[in-house]
UniProtKB/TrEMBL annotation:
Coiled coil: none annotated. Residues 2-145 form the N-acetyltransferase domain. The keyword Chloroplast does not apply. InterPro entries: Acyl_CoA_acyltransferase (IPR016181), Bact_Acetyltransf (IPR050832), GNAT_dom (IPR000182). Pfam families: Acetyltransf_1 (PF00583). This is N-acetyltransferase. It comes from Streptomyces humidus. SUPFAM superfamilies: Acyl-CoA N-acyltransferases (Nat). Keywords: Acyltransferase, Transferase. PANTHER family: ACETYLTRANSFERASE (PTHR43877:SF1), AMINOALKYLPHOSPHONATE N-ACETYLTRANSFERASE-RELATED-RELATED (PTHR43877).
């Protein structure tokens, strides 16, 4: 049984392990202090929010999300990070996390919930194709530094 809920102070180490797994998957280097800074931001809950998935009381998945203004509609909810421990995959944790974020977006009155993933992330995309609609957009990043 998968349960979702807010992260707790005692989740700090498990959260970091999952966050590092997520960043490793996306080949993104984050210095140690970046994890501390993100944990602070998540526990403050002002700009970036988090939810965890638990199996047998153990944190096995995380989702980070934020709300932002849009020009043509109500605020949007961006599901920035979603990661489930490899050993816990296939048991509904990712779906449960998406639904929990969707619930938060509805409560906030957001116009939409969206996320991005790598084109070759076929395992995740199989789930995403069942719970969401791919609208054909491709993301580009313009270097700022």
């Amino acid at each position: 049984m998968i349960e979702t809920g807010s992260l707790r102070p005692q989740d700090r180490a498990a959260w970091e392990s999952l966050a590092r797994g997520y960043k490793r998957f996306y080949r993104t280097d984050v210095p140690d202090e970046g994890y501390e800074r993100m944990w602070r931001r998540l526990t403050e809950g002002n700009e970036v929010h988090a939810v965890g998935a638990r199996a047998d009381g153990e944190l096995v998945g995380i989702a980070h999300y934020l709300f932002h203004v849009t020009g043509w509609a109500a605020d949007s909810c961006y599901l920035q990070d979603l990661y489930v421990d490899e050993a816990a995959r296939g048991r509904g944790a990712a779906r449960a996390l998406i639904e929990r974020v969707a619930e938060a977006a509805r409560e906030r009155g957001a116009a939409r919930l969206y996320w991005t993933t790598r084109e070759d992330n076929v395992t995740a995309r199989a789930l995403y194709d069942r719970v969401a609609v791919f609208k054909g957009f491709i993301r580009y990043d313009h270097p700022l530094g």
